[in-house]
């Protein structure tokens, strides 16, 4: 019985000794990915993170989920809408795992950008949707929207 308790305590000590503390420099070196978004959420949720560091970190997120939005609002007091994608022009969407599903996902995100009158971002998402989708009708749909927004003859 005592041996089990000692082993459990040693295991917990080993785990906490190996736990990585994430800082803003570590986040800057990471590539845009879902894993980076997890570390951004972990960084923002940390009690040692300042408001300015949280603002810099959230700008690097490729996708802001509900947990990240709540942590950011708790830290800064600024409400950010969950479900938003990276808004920088050089931000490439993450590589797709299922082309048809991902193509639709980026197409509908493009529609959201059109509704918000962010036409260049919408064109980028429609173009990406057109390139990755498997279905001809989805390619045609995305091509139509790229044509419609860019007015390219």
TrEMBL record:
This is Lytic murein transglycosylase.
């Amino acid at each position: 019985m005592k041996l089990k308790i000692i082993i459990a305590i040693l295991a917990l000590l080993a785990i906490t000794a190996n736990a990585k503390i994430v800082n803003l420099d570590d986040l800057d070196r990471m590539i845009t990915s879902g894993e980076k978004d997890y570390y951004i959420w972990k960084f923002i949720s940390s009690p040692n993170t300042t408001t300015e560091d949280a603002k810099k970190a959230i700008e690097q997120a490729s996708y802001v989920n509900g947990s990240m939005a709540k942590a950011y609002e708790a830290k800064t007091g600024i409400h950010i809408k969950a479900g938003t994608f990276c808004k920088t022009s050089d931000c490439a969407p993450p590589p797709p795992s299922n082309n048809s599903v991902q193509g639709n996902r980026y197409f509908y995100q493009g529609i959201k950008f059109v509704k918000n009158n962010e036409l260049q971002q919408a064109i980028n998402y429609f173009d990406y949707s057109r390139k990755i989708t498997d279905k001809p009708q989805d390619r045609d749909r995305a091509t139509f929207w790229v044509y419609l927004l860019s007015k390219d003859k």
